[in-house]
Amino acid sequence: MSNSVYGIALSGLNAARSGLSTTSHNIANANTVGYNRQQVIQQARPSTGSDIGFIGQGVDIASVQRVYSDFINAQEQKATSDAAFFEAKAQQIARVDAMIADDASGLSSALSIFFASAQTLSTNPADLAARQNYLSSAGTLAARFNGLNTVMDDLRVATNLKVTDTVSQLNDASSQIAALNKQIVAAKNQTNANGGPPNDLLDQRDRLIMQLSKQVQTTRIDMGDGSVNLFLANGQPLVVKDRQFAVSTEIDPQDPKNLLVGTTNVINGQARLVAFEPSSLGNGALAGFLSFRQNELTEYQNTIGLLAARIGQAVNDVQTAGVDLDLNPGGALFGFGTSGNLAVDISRVVPNVNNNTGNLTNITMRAVDLSKLSAAEYEVTISGGAPQYRVAGSTGPFTPAVALADGSGPYFEIRDAAGAPLLSFRLDNATPTDGDTFTLMPVREAALNMRVLIDRPSEVAASSATNPSIGNNQAMLQITALQTSRTMYQSNNSAGVAISDGFNQLVSRVGNKTREFTIGAESRTAVLNQVAESRDALQGVNMDEEAANLLRYQQAYQASGRVISLSKELFDQILSMF
């Protein structure tokens, strides 16, 4: 009897000691990020049958488990990716908003000053001071376009750096997760006999997965051996058991100012990067930065280029149709390059030199219709020996480019939905191969290359050529009218948009997008905070609860110790009887 009581008491002592150790561990890690509180799982030993019934034999420790919810963890993982995505976009677009809306760096004041100077000159066309003021305001406008494009390019570089940093953090986390998978599987195999999971290793891995979720949205699959497999939203594996699939970056061959992000695969014996589409990555900071660069930044930079080109062309059309102070034919006020072809000077054409197998390396823009163009870029691919196109970044079908049989060369034309020509291009001395691709950026270089060509006030054409005279102001009145004349976006029988309204629309779009992403970031962060609070309430360490556990296990320990003392006294009495 005494031996049985002693064994039962000893099992209770061990259970109380395990409880004290676990509670102490919880208290010590109360402020450890990602720590989930642990609890001792006890189970009664099988009872022993006797003449009077079954008599209990004490207690065993089944395992030490962490308090954990798969559901809450999945919610937090998704909320983390959502918040990081909108935060990344809000962070970048806020810089565009501040730049465009600012009087010192935006276009609004420069446009107003330029048209005001034209109005002033129209009141006294022969005044050299007014002519110089007109040229100065034109120079200020061109410089403002140059500066905006430079800032946009700088923001593109900064976004690329963000992408590089995000990919580095992503790879670092996935590498550690793969290593922890290996440790957890080994630890679980060692403790399977006792049934105890390696809780602290599991916490470390979950913390890394949560950090990874901030960089990129992942799908988690828990395996039976204790490892987890992680996949990107597009199905690309990131971690499989103890193997990491690293994400890489390289310069975009179709736009050297961008970085591609993807995985490196061996294709035809060569290592090549298979790039991710930003839209296929779901959420997370990486998707946010890539989406901003591909969509908002490209649209805004091209819109600024389109405004520069449209203003320059419209002003030049008036100036070259007029006469200057000496009654000589007027010259262009604004220039965009040295080729003499506006379409060439304002555009950028980038062949995919890494993937093209033909000799398609030189594509020349022939013409653009700036009244109908939008800020879109075009992806062109060769199929059946002829080019097909679609808006860059879209996933829709390609449309065959229209061949121009004008005898001047192998020209092809891109048209809008109503069939109106938008731009044309030529494949120069090329025998393209099916699958070759290139990107047309019709107005990307306009704001960068804009400059004033006239430096003598007398060369300003203020008079119309139909009624030339020193006091004639018809040319200046036409330029003043350009501020409100609806000369942009005239596709599909549209009445068009005025130049000033075109810029105001850009400011409005940027402001609305900034507000959208800021509100999106705030709301997603609020959801994340709510999920984190739910997780802390269930899985976090509650010091009051742990203090109560300390007292409970202390009392159990003392009681079991008292039973052991009693068992010894009983055993001594039995011995004294003999």
Your description of this structure?
The chain is of the alpha+beta class and 578 residues long. It has helices at 2-28, 70-101, 108-123, 128-191, 199-215, 285-320, 342-346, 446-449, 474-481, 499-539, 543-577, and strands at residues 38-44, 48-50, 53-55, 59-66, 218-222, 228-232, 237-240, 243-244, 248-251, 259-267, 270-275, 322-323, 334-335, 348-351, 363-368, 378-383, 386-391, 399-400, 402-404, 411-415, 421-427, 437-441, 451-452, 463-464, 486-488, 497-498. A 5-stranded antiparallel β-sheet has the order 14-22-16-17-18. Strands 5-6-7-8 form a 4-stranded antiparallel β-sheet. A 4-stranded antiparallel β-sheet has the order 15-21-20-19. Strand 10 (259-267) and strand 11 form a beta hairpin. The model has no long low-confidence stretch (mean pLDDT 87).
